[in-house]
C-alpha cells in the first residue's frame, strides 16, 4: 500500500468487484480513469482478483462511466457474483463466429472472381465491421486522446490496410485479434475461478438457535456467541467451538487434507468444512469477515495484487518499449518514401506491420496469468502463498531449515520402551503413573498417557509422603513401600553399589537412540526403565526424501535438544545437517548465516515461537495455519494443515511457476525480435504480424494454465 493510501483512513476505502477486464493494460487504464474522478483521492486495481479499492467518495455509475471504454460492470464487493454465460455463448464471442464465416466466404469469392471483385471486398468489409466494431470505438477514442494502446495500434493498422486496398488482410487481422482477446478473457476467467470457487465453499446462511427459537440467519447477521446447529452432510457457515456432539469433519477446503478429522466437544471448527456424520452444536467465535476462510480469500486476493520481481521488470520494460515501437513504425513508413524515393504504399504497409507486431500484449500478460493460476491452485490445495514474490523465491530455494519440535516431530513426548527387571510391567507402570500424577514434569504426562492407553487403574492406588527431589526425580510411598522415579543419576547416588553394569549398558543404548530414560526403583534396586521420546511425525521422513528429490540441496534441523537426541532424530528423518543446543536467538543467527552463504533460505516452523527465525529467512513457512492467526500473519507461505506433506508440492509448484514465467518472457521477446527481423526483407505481412503477436499471447497463456495441473 502506498504511503498516501496508508494516510487515508480505512473507513474511506471501499472495494468493488469489476467484471470485464480483458488485459492488464486495460486494468491500469481503468485505475487511472477512476483516480481522476471528482471525490476520489486514490484507487488501486487488483487485476488478479478483478477488484478495485477506492479511497474517497464515488458512485457505481461514475465507476462504470470510467470503465465505459471496456464496457466494465461494477458491483459492491459483498454482492454475489453474477453468473456469466458459458464462454461459447458470450455475446462478444458470437461476433467472432459471424465475421470468421464472412471471411471464409469472401476468400472463396476472391478465388472465384478475383481479389478485387466487389462481392469479395463487401464480404471483407462486413467481416471487419462486425468483428472489429467495439475495437474501433475504443481505438478512435484513444486516438483522439493520443493514447496509444493495443486498441489504437490495431485500429490504425486495420484502417491503414483497408486504405491501401488490403481488405482481406484487414479482415484477417480483425478476426485473429478478436479470437486472441476471447482466449485471453477465457484464460483469466479460468485463473480467477480458483478464487471464486473458494468464495462458494461456505454456506451464505446457517441454522441458529437464539433462546428457544431456531431460525435460518444470513451469515452477515450471525453474532459471536450464537449457537449454530449443523446437521450431517451440511457445511459449516462460521468458525466456532463444538459445545455438543461428535462427528468427523472433512477439512479439505481449508487445510487440503483429504482424510476427515474426528472432532468433539471443545474442538475448534472452521467455516467451509463438511460435517460428515453427527449432529453438532457449535458456538460461533468469529464474525463472518474474521473466519479463517475469509482470511484465506483475502490473503489470496492480496497475494495476486503483489507484484513479483519478474512482473515489475516486464512493466518497466513495456513502459519504454511501446512508445519506442510507435516512433519506429512511423519513421519506417515515412523515411524510405521521403528520402529514398521508395513506394509509399509498400512502406506504409511495413510500418503498419511493425505497429501490430510491436504490441507488448504477450509480454505484459506473461507473468500475472502464471502467478494468479499458481496461487489459486495452491490455495485449493491448502497452501497459502502470500504473493508472487514468495512464489518466485520458493522456486529458487536451495536450503530449507526446520524447527524440530512440533514440525518434524509431534511435539508431545510419549513412552517408547518399558524394560522391567523385577515384577510385572503393568503393575510397575501403575505404580509409576500413580506417583507421577503429583508431578508437573512433561515426561510425567507421557507416563500418565501411556497408563491411560493401557487401561491401568492408577487412580485407585493411594500415594503417601510424595516429595520432589529437585532436578533428579520424585519419591513416594505406595502400599507402604518407598519408591523412587527419576533420572539414572538419582539411582547412581541412591544405590549402595551404584547401577549394575548391564542396566547401565541398557540405559546408554536407549539414550543413543535419542530417548530420555527414567528409572523406577527402591533404595535397594532398579525395578524398571521407562524411555520417553518426542515422536517423529509419520510424514517427516518421506517429506525430507521428496524435498531432496525435487532439488533441495540441503535440509537443516534446528533444535534446543542435546546433540545426542538431535542426531538420533535427524538420522531417522534423513536431514543433511543437524544443529542442536540452540536458544531462540541462536536459531535467528543461524538463519542469517545460512542466508549469507546461500542467499535464499526457507525456515519452516509452527509459527508461534519461531516468528523471529521465520521473519529472518527469505521465505518463512508456517504450518498448522488453520488454527493460529500468528502463522497466518507472520509467515510468507502457510501450510494450512498441521502436516509437512504439502511442502514438496509447494516447492514443485513454485519451481514450475518460475520456469513458466521465464519461458513466457523469453518466448514473448524472442517472437518480437524474430518478427521485427522479417521486416528487412519485407516478409512481414500484416496477418503474419498479428498471428505472431496473438499466437505468442495464446501460447504464453496456455503455458501458464499448465500450473493448474500441478498436483501433489
Automatic annotation (TrEMBL):
Matches recorded under PROSITE patterns: ATPASE_E1_E2, HMA_1, HMA_2
UniProt cross-references to InterPro entries, sorted A to Z: ATPase_P-typ_cyto_dom_N, ATPase_P-typ_P_site, ATPase_P-typ_TM_dom_sf, ATPase_P-typ_transduc_dom_A_sf, ATPase_P-type_domA, Cation_Transport_ATPase_IB, HAD-like_sf, HAD_sf
Keywords for this protein: ATP-binding, Cadmium, Cell membrane, Ion transport, Membrane, Metal-binding, Nucleotide-binding, Phosphoprotein, Translocase, Transmembrane, Transmembrane helix, Transport
Predominant location: membrane
Membrane topology: Multi-pass membrane protein
UniProt catalytic activity: Cd(2+)(in) + ATP + H2O = Cd(2+)(out) + ADP + phosphate + H(+)
Top-level lineage group: Bacteria
UniProt enzyme class: translocase
Domain annotation HMA: ranges: 12-75
Transmembrane segments: 94-110, 117-136, 320-340, 352-376, 665-684
CDD domains for the chain: HMA, P-type_ATPase_Cd-like
Subcellular location: Cell membrane
EC number: 7.2.2.21
Assigned protein family: Belongs to the cation transport ATPase (P-type) (TC 3.A.3) family. Type IB subfamily.
NCBIfam families: ATPase-IB1_Cu (TIGR01511), ATPase-IB2_Cd (TIGR01512), ATPase-IB_hvy (TIGR01525), ATPase_P-type (TIGR01494)
Name the UniProt record assigns to this protein: Cd(2+)-exporting ATPase
Organism: Geobacillus proteiniphilus
Lineage summary: Bacteria, Bacillati, Bacillota, Bacilli, Bacillales
Amino acid at each position: 500500500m502506498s504511503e498516501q493510501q496508508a494516510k487515508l483512513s480505512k473507513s474511506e476505502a471501499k472495494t468493488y468487484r469489476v467484471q470485464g477486464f480483458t488485459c492488464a493494460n486495460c486494468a491500469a487504464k481503468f485505475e487511472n480513469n477512476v483516480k481522476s474522478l471528482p471525490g476520489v483521492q486514490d484507487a488501486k486495481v487488483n487485476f488478479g482478483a478483478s477488484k478495485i479499492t477506492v479511497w474517497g467518495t464515488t458512485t457505481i455509475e461514475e465507476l462504470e462511466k470510467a470503465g465505459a471504454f471496456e464496457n466494465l460492470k461494477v458491483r459492491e464487493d459483498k454482492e454475489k457474483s453474477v453468473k456469466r454465460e458459458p464462454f461459447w455463448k458470450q455475446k462478444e464471442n458470437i461476433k467472432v463466429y459471424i465475421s470468421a464465416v464472412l471471411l471464409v466466404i469472401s476468400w472463396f469469392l476472391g478465388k472465384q472472381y478475383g481479389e478485387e471483385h466487389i462481392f469479395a471486398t463487401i464480404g471483407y468489409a462486413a467481416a471487419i465491421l462486425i468483428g472489429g466494431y467495439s475495437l474501433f470505438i475504443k481505438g478512435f477514442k484513444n486516438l483522439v486522446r493520443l493514447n496509444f494502446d493495443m486498441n489504437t495500434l490495431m485500429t490504425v493498422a486495420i484502417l491503414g490496410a483497408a486504405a491501401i486496398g488490403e481488405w482481406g488482410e484487414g479482415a484477417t487481422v480483425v478476426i485473429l485479434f478478436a479470437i486472441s482477446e476471447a482466449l485471453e478473457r477465457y484464460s483469466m476467467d479460468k485463473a480467477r475461478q480458483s478464487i471464486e470457487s473458494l468464495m462458494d465453499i461456505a454456506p451464505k446462511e446457517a441454522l441458529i438457535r437464539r433462546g428457544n427459537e431456531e431460525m435460518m440467519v444470513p451469515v452477515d447477521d450471525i453474532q459471536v456467541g450464537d449457537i449454530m446447529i449443523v446437521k450431517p452432510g451440511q457445511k459449516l457457515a462460521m468458525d466456532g467451538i463444538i459445545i455438543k456432539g461428535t462427528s468427523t469433519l472433512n477439512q479439505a477446503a481449508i487445510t487440503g487434507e483429504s482424510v476427515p478429522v474426528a472432532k468433539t466437544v471443545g474442538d475448534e471448527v472452521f467455516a467451509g468444512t463438511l460435517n460428515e456424520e453427527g449432529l453438532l452444536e457449535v458456538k460461533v467465535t468469529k464474525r463472518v469477515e474474521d473466519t479463517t476462510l475469509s482470511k484465506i480469500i483475502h490473503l489470496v486476493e492480496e497475494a495476486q495484487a503483489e507484484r513479483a520481481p519478474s512482473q515489475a521488470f516486464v512493466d518497466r520494460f513495456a513502459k519504454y518499449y511501446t512508445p519506442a515501437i510507435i516512433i519506429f513504425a512511423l519513421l519506417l513508413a515515412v523515411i524510405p518514401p521521403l528520402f529514398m524515393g521508395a513506394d509509399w504504399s509498400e512502406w506504409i504497409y511495413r510500418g503498419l506491420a511493425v505497429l501490430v507486431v510491436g504490441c507488448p500484449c504477450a509480454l505484459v500478460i506473461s507473468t500475472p496469468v502464471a502467478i494468479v493460476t499458481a496461487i489459486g491452485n495452491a490455495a485449493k490445495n491448502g497452501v497459502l502463498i502470500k504473493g508472487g514474490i514468495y512464489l518466485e523465491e520458493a522456486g529458487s530455494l536451495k536450503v530449507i531449515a526446520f524447527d524440530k519440535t512440533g514440525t518434524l516431530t509431534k511435539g508431545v513426548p510419549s513412552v517408547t520402551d518399558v524394560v522391567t527387571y523385577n515384577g510385572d510391567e503393568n503393575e510397575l507402570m501403575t505404580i509409576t503413573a500413580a506417583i507421577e500424577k503429583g508431578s508437573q514434569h512433561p515426561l510425567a504426562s507421557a507416563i500418565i498417557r501411556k497408563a491411560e492407553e493401557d487401561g491401568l487403574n492408577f487412580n485407585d492406588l493411594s500415594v503417601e509422603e510424595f516429595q520432589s527431589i529437585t532436578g533428579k526425580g520424585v519419591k513416594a510411598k505406595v502400599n507402604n513401600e518407598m519408591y523412587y522415579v527419576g533420572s539414572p543419576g538419582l539411582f547412581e547416588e541412591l544405590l549402595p553399589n551404584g547401577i549394575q553394569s548391564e542396566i547401565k549398558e541398557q540405559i546408554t543404548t536407549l539414550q543413543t537412540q535419542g530417548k530420555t530414560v527414567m528409572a523406577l526403583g527402591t533404595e535397594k534396586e532398579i525395578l524398571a526403565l521407562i524411555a520417553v521420546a518426542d515422536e517423529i511425525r509419520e510424514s517427516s521422513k518421506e517429506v525430507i526424501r521428496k524435498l531432496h528429490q525435487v532439488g533441495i540441496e540441503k535440509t537443516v534441523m534446528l533444535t534446543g535438544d542435546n546433540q545426542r537426541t538431535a542426531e538420533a532424530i535427524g538420522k531417522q528423518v534423513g536431514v543433511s545437517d543437524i544443529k542442536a543446543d540452540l536458544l531462540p536467538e541462536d536459531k535467528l543467527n543461524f538463519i542469517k548465516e545460512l542466508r549469507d552463504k546461500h542467499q535464499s533460505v526457507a525456515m519452516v516452523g509452527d509459527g508461534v515461537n519461531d516468528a523471529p527465525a521465520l521473519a529472518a529467512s527469505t521465505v518463512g513457512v508456517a504450518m498448522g495455519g488453520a488454527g493460529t492467526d500468528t502463522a497466518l500473519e507472520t509467515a510468507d507461505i502457510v501450510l494450512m494443515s498441521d502436516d509437512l506433506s504439502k511442502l514438496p508440492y509447494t516447492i514443485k509448484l513454485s519451481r514450475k511457476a518460475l520456469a513458466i514465467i521465464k519461458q513466457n518472457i523469453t518466448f514473448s521477446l524472442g517472437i518480437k525480435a524474430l518478427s521485427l527481423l522479417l521486416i528487412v526483407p519485407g516478409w512481414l505481412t500484416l496477418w503474419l504480424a498479428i498471428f505472431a503477436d496473438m499466437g505468442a499471447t495464446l501460447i504464453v497463456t496456455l503455458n501458464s494454465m499448465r500450473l493448474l495441473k500441478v498436483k501433489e
